[in-house]
Write a structure and sequence with these properties.
- By secondary structure, this protein is mostly beta strands.
- It has a single domain, classed as 6 Propeller (Neuraminidase).
- It contains no helices and 26 strands.
- The two termini are 33 Å apart.
């Protein structure tokens, strides 16, 4: 959610990775569930397993891509399932439509368990780490966006001080939460939360108030997107300290990285010339292996 800005199948995944002629630090491939009209990759864990959701004529379904095989994951009570995060142990979090609202779930060893913030209208669990801690967002009864952390059976609201609203998107295995907050002028800024301390992160080359941060891996590499005044909107990035790499899918109108693992493999969505949402995987040029999600 970007500020109100979601059976086993045969393999269909480009193993010939496209090399961007401009941003040659990464090579790219499209991810697409066979028979889908839209595929949204949302996360990749440190074993290379990718999750997300896709749409087709029967509804919206979650998916997992592992060892080159797409597997559909549907909550049994709905035709609308969204998967947003996966841990290194394979625990999956997401949301499903329940009547006119969305409920959260945790999927552990094939068992769906509901996860709902007290008195919230709806909830979106966004990520889960190896310790089982979960972060995400919820909508209150008045329609306002909030963020939460679920830890050891209890919820805690997360809010960047003085923020209009806060969107927690990721949590890594070092218990660092990442996301985006909005100021009173509707400007967007990235944030990190560690040991109860919030730190704002802005891309220096971005149009002011247009930094959106999604996840950070265990080594401090962050992904997100920003508006570049000299290029098309929503340029993806990978960043750690002063090290900075643009993530731009070839010929995309916009690129939105969602997840990054410890090998700096990035997944997310890109927008094509017809404004269709599509998905990608980006692998560093220096790496010779193929991520396990794509098969051997």
């Amino acid at each position: 959610m970007k500020y109100s800005r979601p059976r086993n199948l045969p393999v269909l995944c480009a193993l010939s990775l496209l090399v961007s002629p401009v941003w040659a630090a990464y090579k790219y491939a499209e991810l697409r569930v066979p028979g889908s009209s839209m595929t949204a990759a949302t996360d990749i864990n440190n074993h290379g397993t990718i999750v997300g959701y896709y749409s087709n004529s029967t509804g919206i379904h979650g998916f997992r891509l592992k060892n080159g095989v797409y597997k559909t994951i549907d909550h049994p009570l709905t035709q609308e399932t969204y998967i947003y995060g996966i841990s290194d142990s394979g625990v999956i979090v997401g949301s499903y439509r329940k009547l006119h609202r969305f409920s959260g779930f945790v999927l552990v060893q094939g068992l769906f368990v509901d996860l709902n913030y007290p008195q919230a209208w709806e909830i979106r669990p966004g990520d889960v780490n190896l310790a089982g801690k979960i972060v995400g967002t919820f909508i209150d009864q008045s329609g306002n966006l909030h963020s939460f952390k679920w830890d050891d059976g209890s919820f805690r609201e997360l809010k960047v001080p003085h923020a209009k609203f806060t969107e927690a998107a990721g949590i890594n295995n070092r218990d660092v939460t990442s996301g985006t907050w909005q100021d009173s002028s509707f400007g967007a800024h990235g944030f990190l939360l560690q040991n109860y301390v919030y730190t704002t992160m802005n891309v220096l080359r971005a149009e002011p108030g247009t930094t959106f941060l999604t996840r950070m891996n265990d080594f401090g590499w962050m992904v997100g997107d920003y508006d570049d005044p000299n290029l098309s909107p929503l340029i993806g990035f990978l960043k750690k300290g002063t090290a900075f790499v643009k993530i731009i899918y070839p010929n995309a109108r916009a690129t939105h990285p969602e997840g990054v693992n410890n090998n700096k493999v990035v997944v997310g969505q890109w927008i094509d010339a017809h404004i269709n949402t599509r998905s990608f995987i980006a692998v560093p040029q220096s790496q010779t292996y193929v991520p396990s999600a794509l098969g051997d």
